[in-house]
Design a protein that fits this description.
The chain is α+β, with helices and mostly antiparallel strands and 139 residues long. Helix content is 36%, strand content 29%. The chain has a five-stranded mixed sheet, sandwiched between helices. It is globular and about 35 Å long. About 9% of the residues have low confidence.
Length: 139
C-alpha cells in the first residue's frame, strides 16, 4: 500500500551548502533504490520532508531518520495511505530556503516564514503538506 508521511525536525547546527548537497545526493540514491519519492525543505535549521512509497519502506526509512544524529525533535505531522504519489517523478525534490537565491540551486524559491518553523507546524500539520505541494508546482 502507498503511504505518505510528512515530518519536521531541527538540524543540530546550521548546515552549509556542501552538507546539504551531500545529504541530498545520499537520500536520492537510497530513495531511488527502495522506491521512495518525496520533497525536502530546509531553512534556518528546520527540515520538513515528505516521504512516499511502499508503507514498509517508508516506515523503515523514517525509523532510520529518527535515529540520524544530524537532527533532533523529529515529529510526525502527517501520515496516511494515498491513492497516488504527489512527487512521482522525484527520488527526492529539494529546496534550501536558507540561502539567498544567488547562492542556491536550480529551482530555488524564496518562500517560507516563521509560521513554518517546527514549533508552528506541530500546531498546524496541514501547513506542512500545503507547503510541500506548493514547491512541487514551482520546482
Amino acid at each position: 500500500m502507498l503511504q505518505q508521511l510528512v515530518y519536521c525536525s531541527k538540524a543540530v547546527h546550521l548546515m552549509d551548502s556542501s552538507e546539504l548537497l551531500q545529504l541530498l545526493a545520499n537520500a536520492r540514491q537510497f530513495n531511488h533504490s527502495v522506491g521512495i519519492t518525496g520533497m525536502l525543505l530546509y531553512k534556518d535549521q528546520s527540515f520538513i520532508q515528505m516521504l512516499e512509497g511502499d508503507e514498509q519502506q517508508v516506515e523503515s526509512l523514517y525509523a532510520r531518520i529518527q535515529q540520524d544524529s544530524r537532527h533532533y525533535r523529529v515529529k510526525t505531522l502527517y501520515q496516511q495511505p494515498a491513492q497516488q504519489r504527489a512527487f512521482s517523478n522525484w527520488s527526492m525534490g529539494f529546496q534550501n530556503l536558507h540561502l539567498p537565491p544567488a547562492e542556491n540551486f536550480e529551482g530555488y524559491s524564496a518562500f517560507m516564514s516563521p509560521e513554518y518553523d517546527v514549533d508552528a507546524l506541530l500546531t498546524a500539520p496541514q501547513k506542512a503538506l500545503k507547503l510541500l505541494l506548493y514547491f512541487r508546482s514551482y520546482s
